[in-house]
Amino acid sequence: MKTLLHDLKGIFLKDWWIEILTNTPDCIYYFGPFKDEAEASKAKAGYIEDLTQEGAIVSQISVMKRPTPAQLTFEYSSDFSTASVAES
Q1: 38-60 pLDDT, tens digit each
Q2: Cα(5)–Cα(10) distance, rounded to whole angstroms?
Q3: CA distance 82 to 38
């Protein structure tokens, strides 16, 4: 029951999230949730810095209101044919 309530909250109550796409590795990272767009925008520089220090090449950054992602890190091949969840 707790999982069902959590899933319903994720569908109907959207929070602010940072989505960062990287090349090398080909990943999508989600950071959040944040209470508002300003808080997320202020935090994104730190996440970008952390990823680039780890050797990632950032290709796109978005701040958006969305349901809670199923995974926070998503690794994919360049053609999306072999997508998988990255190990944390």
Answers
A1: 999 999 999 999 999 999 999 99
A2: 9
A3: 35
Residues near 8 by beta carbon (within 8 Å), at least 6 away in sequence? none
**Strand, helix or coil at 3?**
helix
- Distance CA(88)–CA(86), nearest Å, equals 6
User: Mind listing the pLDDT tens digit for each residue in 15-42?
Assistant: 999 999 999 899 999 999 999 999 999 9
Q: Residue 20 has which token pair?
A: 């960062």
Beta bridge partners of 30: 19
3-state helix, strand, coil in the chain (%, to 5): 30, 35, 30
- Per DSSP, what are the bridge partners of residue 63? 18
Phi and psi for 77 in degrees, rounded to 5? -80, 165
